[in-house]
Design brief:
About 16% of the residues have low confidence. The chain is built from 1 helix and 9 strands. The protein is elongated and about 110 Å long. It has an 8-stranded mixed barrel with strand order 2-3-4-5-8-9-7-6. The chain has one domain: Beta Barrel (Sortase, Chain: A). Strand 8 and strand 9 form a beta hairpin. The protein is of the alpha+beta class.
């Protein structure tokens, strides 16, 4: 006698339901994975490409404007004496600061501040093959996310006594300061403006400090967190700041340089 196996329809329905649930879950996971991958590609690759192209166009526009203004380069002159009193500055060391520091004062002899969030200088680091525009302010949307380097409001301008302090992204949005940790003493950093080119030589690097260590961009830059790091005497300084470690904003990496020459355009 042959026994016929009886299959309950309810069991078949449960198996089909489980298969649909598993298949639906797999589709959701694949979709989420694709979306996350696209977000990563956009953040890491597309923002870099877009920002670098925009920054490059701005550099070329500045060069054309300056060339049209005329002016011949003359023999470089030595940096002015560092005995002059630097202009006061009051700003945070956080590259994400979006507004100028309140109560900031400027000496009457100082040149007027550039238009807000507009590029007005070019920063070049030959060792890194970097050539990027500098704009006033350090907001992300207005300056840093364009691939520009941002000038901290309240700090000195290029060539002035005191501290010309700037910030830049280390990752994404052009990441102009990604490799400033590779800079060594005597490496050259140039800041070009409409009137002159200022050459600074790297002097010190602070590999890591707290994000709130605002003293690193003071008129006489020094760390308020790392004793003994920085300077004691007035001078003509350049400060580069960015986030560290890579792909985080927990700490700040700081590179200090000193003015060594000025070449009028």
């Amino acid at each position: 006698m042959v026994r016929v196996r009886v299959v309950q329809h309810s069991g078949l329905r449960r198996q089909a339901l489980r298969r649909r649930v598993l298949w639906g879950g797999a589709e959701v996971l694949v979709t989420v994975g694709v979306v996350l991958l696209l977000l990563v590609v956009h953040q890491v690759w597309w923002t870099n490409r877009e920002a670098r192209e925009g920054a490059g166009r701005e550099v070329r526009a500045l060069e054309r404007a300056w060339d049209g203004a005329g002016g011949d380069s003359r023999t470089a002159v030595s940096a002015p004496s560092a005995t002059a009193e630097p202009a006061p500055a009051d700003a945070s060391a956080d590259p994400g600061v979006s507004e100028p520091a309140p109560g900031t004062r400027r000496r009457s002899a100082d040149p007027p501040a550039p238009d807000w969030s507009r590029a007005y200088a070019i920063l070049s680091i030959p060792r890194l093959g970097l050539r990027v525009p500098v704009a006033e302010g350090v907001s992300k949307a207005g300056v840093l996310n364009k691939g520009y380097v941002g000038h901290y409001p309240g700090t000195g301008q290029p060539g002035q006594a005191g501290n010309f302090a700037v910030a830049g992204h280390r990752n994404t949005h052009g990441e102009p300061f990604r490799y400033i940790n590779r800079l060594a003493p005597e490496d050259i950093v140039r800041v070009e403006t409409r009137s002159a080119t200022y050459t600074y030589a790297v002097d010190q690097t602070l590999p890591q400090t707290a994000a709130h260590d605002g003293s690193v961009i003071g008129p006489v830059p020094r760390s308020g967190v790392k004793p003994g790091r920085g300077y004691e005497d007035p001078g003509y300084y350049l400060t580069l700041t960015t986030c560290t470690p890579e792909y985080t904003s927990r700490y700040r990496l700081v590179v200090w340089a000193k003015l060594v020459s000025m070449r009028p355009r």
